[in-house]
Amino acid sequence: MAKKDLKRMDPEITEPAKPKETVVEFLASLAEVLVTALFIMTFVAQTFAIPSGSMEKTLLIGDHLLVNREQFAPPTHWLGPLLRYSEIKRGDVAVFMSPEQPGLILVKRIIGIPGDRIHLRDGNVYRNGEKLNEPYAQHTLGSDGTYQSSYRDNFPAVPASFMSGVRNTDWQHVMPQNLQGEDIVVPANSYFAMGDNRDNSYDSRYWGFLPRENVMGHPMFLYWSFESAEYSPDQSGSDQIAQFTQTLIHFFDKTRWSRTFRPVR
Predict the structure, then answer these.
(1) Tell me, which fold does domain 41-259 have in CATH?
(2) DSSP 3-63
(3) Neighbours of 235 (CB within 10 A)
(4) How far apart are CA 130 and CA 118, in angstroms?
(5) Which residues, 6+ apart, have CB-to-CB distance to 154 below 8 Å?
(6) Per-residue pLDDT reduced to its tens digit, 206-218
(7) Is the pLDDT of residue 170 over 70?
(8) What share of the chain is helix, strand, coil (3-state, %, to 5)?
(9) Do strands 130-131 and 210-211 pair parallel, antiparallel, or not at all (unpaired)?
(10) In whole angstroms, what is the distance from residue 14 CA to residue 17 CA?
(11) DSSP state letter for 251
């Protein structure tokens, strides 16, 4: 006779109690979770906060991103079946280490890949002779003719110099070596990156080509967005405390809830 039939006939018959999890088993389970989380945050994903408005309106100051560090990484045999790898393409948003300032992490859009010919005319980007349709790009300065920059808006027609805002002396020498006619040609294993806020972005026009090895990954989505003023990643300890205090006080009324889990494109 089945156990459930015996139980129906005699209510006092009960199922044997499941053994309780011991402290050692609980700690082992917790350790597995922590190791898995540490592995993901070390090798697969990373968080990043937007400190400036160079990518507006795609990314706002105070947006917090989850970055896929494996998407642009060379495929491996043991992770290949689990994670999607892809080559860096035109139009991709990428997170990378600054070629100019060691330790500084930036996020820009890839405009040119190796072999592409790039130039700007009156703020419009031309790639391989064709004017780009860029719905993500915006111009916040000079749209009414009050602020023009010949170097910024007509790159690379004007030579790179300190007067044009180029602080990187290496770029002043490298840029002429990659000119063909009115275009700059992206070399092998490099990219040309620009911010979506074209009039207020310190990008490849100013610090040069982005080396392939500097690319860290692709931002997948916003996990949190908080209304913030522009800040420097190397701000002082007192500034960090003040910012943390403001976040605690205004967490609910300054969080941009509508941007939560928004994908980055």
Answers:
(1) Umud Fragment, subunit A (2.10.109)
(2) HHHHHHH-TT--PPPPPPPPHHHHHHHHHHHHHHHHHIIIIIEEEEE--SSTTTTTS-TTE
(3) 12
(4) 9
(5) 119, 120, 121, 122
(6) 999 999 999 999 9
(7) yes
(8) 30, 25, 50
(9) unpaired
(10) 8
(11) H
Sheet hosting strand 45-49, strand order edge to edge:
45-49, 63-68, 215-225, 93-97, 105-112, 190-194, 210-211
> How would residue 17 be classed by pLDDT, with cut points 50, 70 and 90?
low
Going from N- to C-terminal start, the domains of the chain cover 41-259
Tokens 């990484």, located at residue: 73
- Reported as a single tens digit per residue, the pLDDT across 126-162 is 999 999 999 999 988 755 555 678 899 999 999 999 9
- For residue range 224-233, what is the model confidence (pLDDT) as tens digits? 999 988 876 6
Give the pLDDT mean for 233-253. 78
> Residue 118: which of 182, 66, 163 has the closest Cα?
182
